[in-house]
Please model this.
Amino acid sequence: MVISANFKTNKTREETKEYLNTLEQNLHPSTSSEIIIFPPTTALQHHIGRVEIGVQNSYPVERGAFTGEIGLEQLEEFGIRTILIGHSERREILKESQDEVAKKFQFFAEKNFKIIYCIGEPLEIRKEGREKLFHYLENQFRDIPLEYSNYTIAYEPIWAIGTGITPTMEEIEEVLKWIKEKTDRKVIYGGSVKVANIEEILRLPSCDGVLVGSASLEVTDFIKMINISEDISKS
Ligand code: PEP
Model:
């Protein structure tokens, strides 16, 4: 299973180091889950251990004149090979278009990165019914090369992100299953995942893991979530 954490604009470099140390010290040696942490860009670091470090965003270039952005060269300095693409906060707040998102996917796929590709609908679309919902989600696959081997799709309904509201298990399963009809890569869920609800989410037949925001910030909670995922994998 994939158990990933998106710190967003939280934690300093020092706090991230401390978090990673605590996490590594508390992971069971036989942990089988794929654990990925996406810290803020200033906290990117070389890390040796069970935990993988990914970047929350990068500009699809090796280097160049793109003020305020970082490219491949800056990621390579820290051995980063994993990237989050299409997160709703980048699509909605930073106005990244599907064209830009797809360009990023294509660039980093060409560089053989592991990509966690996020899709998800706003509440207005969800309220308009299933046809509108799947049409909206389908558009987020435009120009995404689904034949690429190293990616995971994260379904994150925008109305569930950071709100404490989670869709029903039936609603999550329906979308994850629909995604699985398009690709045989892993499909994970994100949106107000926490210690209290991770088990029922991970037990959904089409769920291969989670992307956790707010609830990952407390390392003890994140460790509890990893342990729950391990128990499920063994059962
Ligand atoms: C996210 O932003 O990817 C996320 C899932 O956030 P939260 O867990 O806080 O809803």
User: Anything to note?
Assistant: The pocket of phosphoenolpyruvate is lined by residues 6, 156, 161-162, 190-193, 211-215 (CB under 6 Å). The domain at 2-81+151-234 is CATH 3.20.20.70 (TIM Barrel). The CA atoms of residues 19 and 219 lie 6 Å apart. The longest helix spans residues 219-234.
